[in-house]
Every structure is written in structure tokens, then in C-alpha cells.
Design brief:
Blueprint (H helix, E strand, L loop, with lengths): L1 H6 L20 H12 L17 H8 L7 E3 L7 E6 L7 H9 L6 E5 L4 E4 L5 E4 L15 H20 L7 E6 L1 H12 L6 E5 L21 E6 L7 H12 L5 E6 L8 H16 L1
Parallel strand pairs: 2-3, 2-6, 6-7, 7-8, 8-9
Antiparallel strand pairs: 1-3, 4-5
Keywords: Cytoplasm, Fatty acid metabolism, Hydrolase, Lipid metabolism
GO molecular function: carboxylic ester hydrolase activity; palmitoyl-(protein) hydrolase activity
Organism: Caenorhabditis angaria
Length: about 280
């Protein structure tokens, strides 16, 4: 779990006009620390893309800026009855989470897809290139969000869901989830998908694009949502997870926040056990 706690790191404050208790800025040491721990996980990679849902060249080029390579896949041991799509955090790739699902959240009838984000310049880190699902602009509560980047990344996630449905897995047997930045994208992608999903998961994450909800998005306003957060998380503080739960609960009563007392910006065995139980109850039984 230690490796995942180092590489799956992401510092972000939800832009909120509903709570004055959130910090509005971070000190210079915080900025330096973030750049150091994220930079330590970087490696040179080339961009490529496997189109999952369209032969249109323009769509392929756009999605190619979101993902790279073939996702890491954990194949089901038994009959394929459900699928989990899980998105990694900033500076990471999908391999580690695929290993975690293979060893810690093993469900025989469930396929797990862990895609890899493309590298991109991240404004927050002085333009440094690193794996990221979308751009980040700042560390304060008023920082703008990458609207177009988030939208394009969500379209990519929707294309993965569409491909599983085309392969014969019903939408209500599909869960989309992720960690930190990837968890935020999973929540947004799940809530904006046009069909009712089996579940949504956000680990150590937050609620993106909150002013758009509920809006016209209704298909997943009753979908079960699992939020997991460490009480000792100093990168994405627990207060952000709690606010995310409160905001989502305004239009979806089926969101639950699971708090882990000694966990930092990472995962732990208890969280993984409870995640496995959530997946089992949501899409297997």
C-alpha cells in the first residue's frame, strides 16, 4: 500500500462557495512538497491510444490525448457478469491498481479495467509533464477547473462503459471508480452517464464540476456511491471528502462516506475489503 500512497498523490481544494471552513491557499512548502513527490514518480512514456468506441479519426485523436496504451485488465476467473473501470491518480498509471484488484479485491465474476492516462503539461506543477486525466490550475479554493479537459476525459470513460455494454454487460452491472484525481473523474463520469450504472466509487477524492448538478443528469441520481477517505489525509483533507458527500447527497441519497482513522492519502486493507463488499452487493448479487 505504501507505493500506492506515494504515486497516487494529488493535492486539490474543491472550489466551494458553500463552506468557509476550507483553506483558501497553501504555503510555498506545500507546493514544493507536491512537486517533489509527484516528480519522483515520473518516467518517460510515449503516447498511443486504442480506440474503444469509434472509428472516427477526429475522435481518436482527441481521445489519444486522454489515454495511452492498452489498459491493464484483470480478467474474471468465472463467468463475466460485471465490470469495474478504475482510474488512477495524478502521476500514476493503472498497473498498480490492477495488481491491487487482482490480490485484494478479487471477485471471480468481475472484469477490472485500469486504463493509463496520457502525459500532459500540468499547470499546477510549472508545466511539468506527467500522467494526468486533465489539467490542474491551482491550490486554492478559487482556482478554475479544466472544464474542457474534464469533459474530454469523461467522454473517454463513457467510451469504456459503452464498449462493455456492446460486449454484453448491462450498464447496471458496471461500476466506475478511481483514486484521488481519478476518483473525482469517476464520480463526474458516472453521474453524467446516460444509463443507470451499478455503482460509482471515489477513493480519497472530491466532487468535480459541482455547479452542473443535478441539472439534466438524472440517470444515476439513485446509483449507489462508495466514497472512502483517510482521516489522516493531508493532500486531500477529510473535510473535502465530507463536503463532497454532502453536495452529492443533495440529489443522490445513496452516497456513503467511509472514513479510515489512520489512513493518509492512500488505501488500506479495511478500505479494500469494504470496497470488495460494495462491488459484490452492487453488481454481483
Amino acid at each position: 500500500m505504501l507505493a500506492r500512497s506515494v504515486t497516487r498523490c494529488f493535492l486539490r481544494v474543491i472550489s466551494s462557495s458553500t463552506s468557509s471552513s476550507f483553506p483558501t491557499s497553501f504555503s510555498s512548502p506545500s507546493r514544493t512538497f507536491l512537486a517533489a513527490i509527484i516528480g519522483s514518480s515520473l518516467s518517460s512514456r510515449s503516447l498511443c491510444f486504442t480506440n474503444n468506441s469509434s472509428s472516427d479519426e477526429e475522435n481518436s485523436q482527441r481521445m489519444g490525448s486522454i489515454s495511452q496504451g492498452t489498459p491493464s485488465i484483470v480478467q474474471p476467473k468465472g463467468e463475466h457478469k460485471a465490470t469495474v473501470i478504475f482510474l488512477h491518480g495524478l502521476g500514476d498509471q493503472g498497473h498498480g491498481w490492477a495488481d491491487a484488484f487482482k490480490s485484494e479485491v478479487r471477485l471471480d465474476n468481475t472484469k477490472v479495467i485500469c486504463p493509463h492516462s496520457a502525459e500532459r503539461s500540468v499547470t499546477l506543477n510549472m508545466g511539468m509533464r506527467m500522467p494526468a486525466w486533465y489539467d490542474l490550475f491551482g491550490l486554492d479554493a478559487a482556482a478554475r477547473e479544466d472544464d474542457s479537459g474534464i469533459s474530454a476525459a469523461a467522454q473517454y470513460v463513457h467510451s469504456l462503459i459503452d464498449a462493455e455494454i456492446a460486449a454484453g454487460i448491462p450498464a447496471n452491472k458496471i461500476i466506475v471508480g478511481g483514486f484521488s484525481m481519478g476518483g473525482a473523474l469517476a464520480i463526474y463520469s458516472g453521474l453524467t452517464y446516460s444509463k443507470t450504472l451499478g455503482g460509482i466509487v471515489g477513493l480519497s477524492s472530491f466532487f468535480l464540476q459541482r455547479t452542473k448538478f443535478p441539472g439534466s443528469y438524472t440517470a444515476n441520481n439513485s446509483t449507489k456511491i462508495f466514497l472512502g477517505h483517510g482521516a489522516a489525509d493531508f493532500l486531500v483533507p477529510l473535510s473535502i471528502g465530507q463536503l463532497s458527500e454532502q453536495l452529492i447527497k443533495k440529489f443522490n441519497p445513496n452516497v456513503e462516506l467511509h472514513i479510515y482513522g489512520s489512513m493518509a492519502h492512500s488505501s488500506c486493507p479495511q478500505e479494500m475489503r469494504e470496497l470488495a463488499e460494495f462491488i459484490k452487493n452492487a453488481v454481483i448479487q
